[in-house]
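Milestone 3.1: sequence recovery, worked example.
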């Protein structure tokens, strides 16, 4: 009797409470959703041939999102884990980058801070066995090999490794752990006063890495910062906000967002930053997008620092990741963001996605990469900062100090060969010729002892021909030598060494140093 009365009371109270949420109506029944469900069911049960309806659903979702905007995207189940891992800032595994060379796992580099580095695994090591599984002379894809090397955190794996110059196999008992995926590529001093930080994307750990880099540079005497956001496609908005806050005084507006209903959410600086009253130079180019533009726009509109380089990409839309229940997800545009002066830097996408993504070609042909005067601006989107500086909306951040780009075909080819991974594969083979020497070479001795010869350039161009890439390098042979040497430094010592070498002679870096010296 008492139990029945308690249940009845609970039911009555439940009917009096309002548990509705804004998302409740999203999944309620309606004819449009039922129509799609029926179509899939008919194909599943009635269609004459067997059809993979999962692929049909994927195509349908992609088509729907393509008709919204260029940045609402579908992440299939097969890609979701990798995409998430890349943005988390770390992964669980043994901590190596590798090539599959002649059906053998060959270590390119033991990743800094990972389990393999701590146990002494080196570039050039061949991983032949993981526990009892043979990893050589097998037709494994890179994904399949990765599954042997990754695993649950704190799980153990025994590796048997062949190392040049050692007859017997080496045994390493490794406990898998979290391996950082760095979003800060480099942090070093450009001059006695000017520190340099390069950020490649905004992941979950970016601000933490950035703060650590700032502290390191402060100890080395940095009173000014060059923040390099070139080729940074964006990422987590919160990380960009935190970084902008380091340079802005309290209560300065960083950005505001506006959603479908017109609701505005403003974000202000609120924390004491280490460089609030110090010069800062934000370096951008045509591939700096989204969160990178948030940082540049917030500082520019608050008359803080100097933006140097070329006009940024022009992405002013905010996405939210939403899971679809089967391991896949969508990143759906839910709002636009605006810089403190009220400008949207989103470039138009009215002519469809293909035209939108070809904007890069239009800029190239228009001469924008060489001259600031070639940038198309809309006078109706003209704004002024508190100190009267004119800025424009409608398509990226226009820098305060423009530095053109070398668009010579030879230079373009060098950059493409680097980005394609071709240089990395060639340099790996070069290191393999004398792995013992290179692994023993101290970083401080690298610059003086290593020189890229004309013979190596010829070998590289021949290597390119075997990859069906036939290029000529005349005027830019010295630039190619610099890229090859920097790629070698990256495989031996990491991204910091690469950036330091590649920035030597860089026009934008030289301009930043010039601007810094004028202030002193």
């Amino acid at each position: 009797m008492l139990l029945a009365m308690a249940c009845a009371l609970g039911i009555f109270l439940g009917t009096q409470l309002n548990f509705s949420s804004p998302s409740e109506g999203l999944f309620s029944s309606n004819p449009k959703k039922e129509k799609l469900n029926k179509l899939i069911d008919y194909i599943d049960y009635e269609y004459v041939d067997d059809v993979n309806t999962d692929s049909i659903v994927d195509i349908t979702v992609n088509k729907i999102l393509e008709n919204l905007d260029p940045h609402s995207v579908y992440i299939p189940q097969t890609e979701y884990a990798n995409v998430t891992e890349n943005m988390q800032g770390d992964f669980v595994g043994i901590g190596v980058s590798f090539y599959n060379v002649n059906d053998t796992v060959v270590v390119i580099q033991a990743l800094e801070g990972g389990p393999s580095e701590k146990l002494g695994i080196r570039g050039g090591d061949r991983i032949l066995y993981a526990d009892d599984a043979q990893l050589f002379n097998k037709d494994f894809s890179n994904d399949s090999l990765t599954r042997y090397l990754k695993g649950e955190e704190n799980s153990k794996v025994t590796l048997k490794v062949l190392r040049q110059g050692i007859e017997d196999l080496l045994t390493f008992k490794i406990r898998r752990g979290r391996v950082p995926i760095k979003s800060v590529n480099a942090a070093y001093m450009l001059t006695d006063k000017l520190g340099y930080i390069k950020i490649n994307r905004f992941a979950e750990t970016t601000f933490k890495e950035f703060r650590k880099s700032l502290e390191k540079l402060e100890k080395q005497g940095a009173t000014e910062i060059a923040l390099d956001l070139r080729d940074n496609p964006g990422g987590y908005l919160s990380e960009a906000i935190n970084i902008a806050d380091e340079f802005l005084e309290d209560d300065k507006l960083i950005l505001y967002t506006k959603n479908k209903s017109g609701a505005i959410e403003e974000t202000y600086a609120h924390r004491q930053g280490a460089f609030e009253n110090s010069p800062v130079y934000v370096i951008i180019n045509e591939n700096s997008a989204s969160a990178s533009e948030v940082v540049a726009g917030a500082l520019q509109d608050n008359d803080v620092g100097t933006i140097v380089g070329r006009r940024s990409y022009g992405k002013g839309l905010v996405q939210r990741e939403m899971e679809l229940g089967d391991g896949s997800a969508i990143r759906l545009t839910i709002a636009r963001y605006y810089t403190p002066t009220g400008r949207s830097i989103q470039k138009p996408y009215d002519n469809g996605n293909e035209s939108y993504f070809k904007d890069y070609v239009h800029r190239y042909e228009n001469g924008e990469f060489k001259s600031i005067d070639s940038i198309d601006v809309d006078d109706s989107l003209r704004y002024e900062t508190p100190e009267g500086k004119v800025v424009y909306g409608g398509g990226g951040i226009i820098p305060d100090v423009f530095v053109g780009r070398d668009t010579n075909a030879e230079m373009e080819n060098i950059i493409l060969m680097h980005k394609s991974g071709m240089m990395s594969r060639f340099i790996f083979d070069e290191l393999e010729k004398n792995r013992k020497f290179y692994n023993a070479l101290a970083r401080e001795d690298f610059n003086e002892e290593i020189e890229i010869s004309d013979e190596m350039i010829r070998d590289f161009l021949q290597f390119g021909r075997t990859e069906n890439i036939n290029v000529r390098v005349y005027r830019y042979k010295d630039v190619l030598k610099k890229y090859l040497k920097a790629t070698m430094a990256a495989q031996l010592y990491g991204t910091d060494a690469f950036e330091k070498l590649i920035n030597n002679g860089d026009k934008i870096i030289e301009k930043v140093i010039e601007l810094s010296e004028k202030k002193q």
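Confidence is low (pLDDT under 50) at residues 1-24. The first helix runs from residue 2 to 16.
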